[in-house]
Amino acid sequence: MKISSALLAVCSLLILEPVAAAEDYTATVQKVATARVSNAAIPGLVVVTVNGQEQKIQGFGLVTNGAGGTSGKTQPHLPDANTVFEIGSVSKTFTALLLADMQMRGELKLDDAVASLLPAYSIPHYQGRAITLLDLATQTSALPRLPANLMPKRPDNPYADYTESNLRDFLHRYQLTRTPGAKYEYSNLGFGLLSQALSARAGKSYAELVQERIAKPLGMADTGIALTASMQANLATGHDAQGKTVANWDMPTLAGAGALRSSAQDMLRYLQAHMHSANVKVPAGLQLVQQAQRPTGTPGLQIGLAWHVQSVRGQTVVLHNGMTGGYASFIGFTADGQRGVVVLANAAVNVDDIGMAALLPAMPAADTSNVNEKKLSAQQLQEYTGRYQLAPGAILSISAGPDGLLAQLSGQERAAIFPRKKDEFFYKIVEASLQFERDASGKIQSLTLHQNGHASPAHRIGELATEAAKRAEITLPAEQLKQYVGSYTLAPGFKLIISEQSGQLYAQATGQGSNPIYAEAADKFFLKDVDAQLSFQRQANGKISGLVLHQSGRNMPGPRDGD
Description:
By secondary structure, the chain is of the alpha+beta class. Helices cover 20% and strands 29% of the residues. The protein has 13 helices and 28 strands.
């Protein structure tokens, strides 16, 4: 579990996506979406699908409207085409479209230096290389994910009191550590700065630009930052990953990173425009945003202007996702314009799986009925455990589970892999396999991931749980384990969720997979897959009040939410 200070969701690495069984397309989408609301992970969601000429908007679960308004929907009800959600980082695609539109109109150029549009700012540069608009739009600006002086008064609304003066002060003091354009690194700060630059060039606010150049031309009446009466009446109440209702987010200064709200009906029109539907006006610049501009360092994944362009199962897809404190979103379409999807949910829980199930053609599940699974001893399995680097930021962790090996890609859930023959393992839930390679002494030194016709090598960069091996695991009573369950805020908008299942505690960081944690003493736990520990803190009355994450030489305190 890699702990980072993410506030808005990053497009997930989708190398190991589940393969749906061959069945009716609509039934597949319904099956996946229904499962997410049935297990109470998400109170309510709406899925928009475009499949050839067929268009559908389907609601699942129940939502409530915090304000009620004139809709009369103050009681739980099925979300529909008009239900409004925060769309988080999907807002970045709107910002990119504004950039492309201004480029097409001759108002600016992609290679313009950001400093030329914001003369009142001191924009950092590296050895004479200035940050350009293209650098910001392709997440290669060399700016950090968030400004270090983001210190909200209200952690539940982390961007609300971050001012333009704060932004200027941070940029004036910040020094770049590498050349802009050289490396992909997702940055909410970068897109917030981009929206400031576009606003300055146009002489209008970001909100006004979105309305004038995107929302009104496309007939998106329920899309914007400020809530109209209609939007307020239909705004679904947001929830955190534990199902607790949370406040809405306001982003006055970094609006282009994730401030927009919208409905499924509006997002359908937005999706259709990007798919070049004959029924929807196509704004200038739509083709430009979809064109791959730079690599991301992940095999098969490039970035256009905000949009991520990925090769999956021989299909090119264009996608982005988003998350705020109480909502999650996903939008994507195939490059051939045949299939598209939008997912809007009123919980801060990743919905990429729903989006990908709707976006990719259904394929038969991998046939493993005739595969001769080799049985390996625990000692043999241990040879393969370790960390393998597929690309910068993409680590494949191989660990030993109770029934064999488990593989986990950065930001994704674990999946079982099964031995087919010496040093070769395969997945049952995806069409992929791993081939391990040994050095002259017989020690595993690397692996190659085979999927979608691609062979992605990964060098072994370290053993798993070097420190964990030195720690003695103890068993705590189930009632004691339940005391730790809760949500802990490590940074504004970034939480660590502790849950319990069948006597096992799990820790899940915002936007990341769930990891088991193990007790070594009362109130002290450790992870086996990475060198990280958790220390829980108690009040005088014995109640758990917070925790401290110990990782990479840092101690990150996190108060328990609600205390």
